[in-house]
Design goal:
Structural class: mainly beta
Distance between the termini: 48 Å
Shape: extended
Radius of gyration: 15 Å
Bound molecules: zinc ion
Strand content: 15-25%
Largest sheet: 2 strands, antiparallel
Low-confidence stretches: none
Number of strands: 4
Number of helices: 1
Order of helices and strands: HEEEE
Mean pLDDT: 80
Length: 67
């Protein structure tokens, strides 16, 4: 089928800084290394070999908040 080449182009990681949360695109060569967020300057560790790529980074919603 049609595979997007963007998958092998770069790694997309999100800044762990809750006040930033900027999505950074780093080259594959940065795996296992630490990059700095260009927005807030936070050091972000780039994950190594990805076993399973997260399709939907859906945050768990509280759903029915039982008050
Ligand atoms: Zn940041």
């Amino acid at each position: 089928m049609s595979n997007s080449n963007l998958n092998a182009a770069s790694i997309r990681i999100m800044c762990p800084n809750l006040t930033c949360r900027k999505v950074l695109a780093v080259p594959q060569s940065c795996r296992g290394k630490t990059v700095r967020c260009r927005s807030c300057g936070t050091n972000i560790r780039v994950p190594g070999p990805v076993v399973e790529a997260p399709k939907n980074a859906a945050d768990q919603k509280p759903g029915t908040a039982a008050a």
